[in-house]
Specification:
118 residues; mainly alpha
């Protein structure tokens, strides 16, 4: 049941993003920034944690979850280090995910030959 719930919630988030892409003039980069910032704001308001517990990976994997991870990292770093935690917390909390994206992106670029659009 957890897999089905995660699939449905994650799919709903992706469908809403697709509606934004199709129905507005927002560029994909702006929508991605909107999702990350929304996840951070929902985490700050205390709404994202219960939503993530309910939805599981369906809420933690999309960009909303990345924003929440950044917020939690900053919050913990501020509690431990004070003001400097604003600058270091997000990087420490999201380092594994960012590193994995860079490594797998690099490996994909080695394995597959990119083709330019004409």
């Amino acid at each position: 049941m957890d897999y089905i719930k995660a699939f449905l919630i994650g799919g709903l988030i992706c469908a809403l993003v697709q509606v934004l892409l199709d129905r507005t003039k927002l560029m994909p980069g702006r929508i991605m920034v909107l999702l990350v910032c929304s996840g951070a704001i929902l985490g700050w308001l205390g709404f994202y944690e219960p939503f993530q517990k309910f939805a599981g990976s369906g809420a933690s994997v999309p960009l909303l979850g990345f924003g929440n991870v950044l917020w939690k990292g900053v919050k913990e770093a501020i509690d431990k280090q004070g003001f400097i935690g604003i600058f270091t917390g997000g990087f420490k909390a999201s380092a594994a995910g960012i590193s994995a994206a860079l490594i797998f992106g690099y490996l994909a670029s080695i394995i597959f030959e990119p083709k330019m659009k004409k």
